[in-house]
Write a structure and sequence with these properties.
Blueprint: E1 2-10, E2 16-23, E3 29-33, E4 38-45, E5 51-53, H1 61-66, E6 81-82, E7 86-89, E8 92-95, E9 104-105, E10 118-122, E11 125-132, E12 143-151, E13 157-165, E14 193-194, E15 200-204, E16 210-216, E17 228-229
Antiparallel strand pairs: 1-2, 2-3, 3-4, 4-5, 6-9, 7-8, 10-11, 11-12, 12-13, 14-17, 15-16
Length: 234
């Protein structure tokens, strides 16, 4: 593996972002930014061996700072929605910042995707880390989180998450990359085909919160038990 770093523009407050690129022996690579601990590009070979960037990101870090789609980033402390921004832990009620209508989404007003992470290269891996202080966005506990990226010689992008807090808290970390397997600049994905080895899905309400109901896919637009174009029924 080879890892290089280079300047990647400035945020609105003047802080500089850095781009890190991990390249394996076959030439496949992943580029990562310390702003949001983000995946910027994933260059992997297609069926003919041609390298394509299949990940979506903003045009530069300045545009990434103002976008609201969480392109490639690590949302946190809690990915997805918390209804009305409320949860109860150890008998105590907590109120989080509401940034998605009446709900809390992806960590609040300034989640992990809007933070400049520390970065370190450890052999063939890149590790982003940051301390989320007690009370940030309403969450309890000082929370130290790290996200480790690596790419093996089979072109697998591997992501490992680790977090430790000095108090009980809630946490749900993930990666929020958008993919276009024909290339990030190839247009709509509606003709690409998908098969899911699943017969059921979780129901959402009008606020995109899960209801707890598990429904059968059969007869719905989400039925991908056999190969089907993404845009066929949607």
């Amino acid at each position: 593996m080879n890892i290089i770093c280079e300047p990647f523009g400035k945020l609105s407050d003047g802080r500089e972002a850095v781009l890190y690129t991990i390249t394996n022996d076959s030439g496949a690579s992943v580029s990562l930014c310390n702003y949001g601990a983000s995946v910027v590009s994933i260059n992997v070979p297609d069926k003919d061996g041609k390298l394509l960037d299949v990940a979506l990101w903003s045009k530069d870090v300045a545009a990434q700072e103002v976008q609201t789609a969480c392109f490639g980033a690590v949302p946190g402390r809690f990915a997805n929605r918390i209804g009305k921004g409320k949860f109860t832990l150890n008998g105590k009620d907590y109120q989080l910042y509401l940034n998605n209508g009446e709900n809390h989404l992806h960590g609040g007003k300034e989640g992990f995707d809007k933070k400049l992470w520390n970065a370190s290269v450890q052999e063939d891996k890149l590790v982003f880390s940051r301390l989320s202080p007690d009370g940030e966005e309403g969450y309890p506990g000082n929370l130290m989180s790290s996200v480790t990226y690596s790419m093996d010689d089979d072109n697998q992008l591997l992501i490992e998450y680790h977090a430790i807090s000095d108090a009980d808290t809630v946490i749900n970390l993930t990666n929020h990359t958008y993919f276009n397997l024909s290339g990030h600049d190839s247009g709509c994905i509606c003709d690409q085909e998908l098969k899911l080895y699943s017969t059921q899905f979780t129901e959402n309400d009008t606020g995109c919160l899960t209801t707890g109901n598990i429904l059968d896919m059969e007869g719905t637009a989400l039925d991908f038990r056999d190969w089907k174009a993404l845009g066929k029924d949607i």
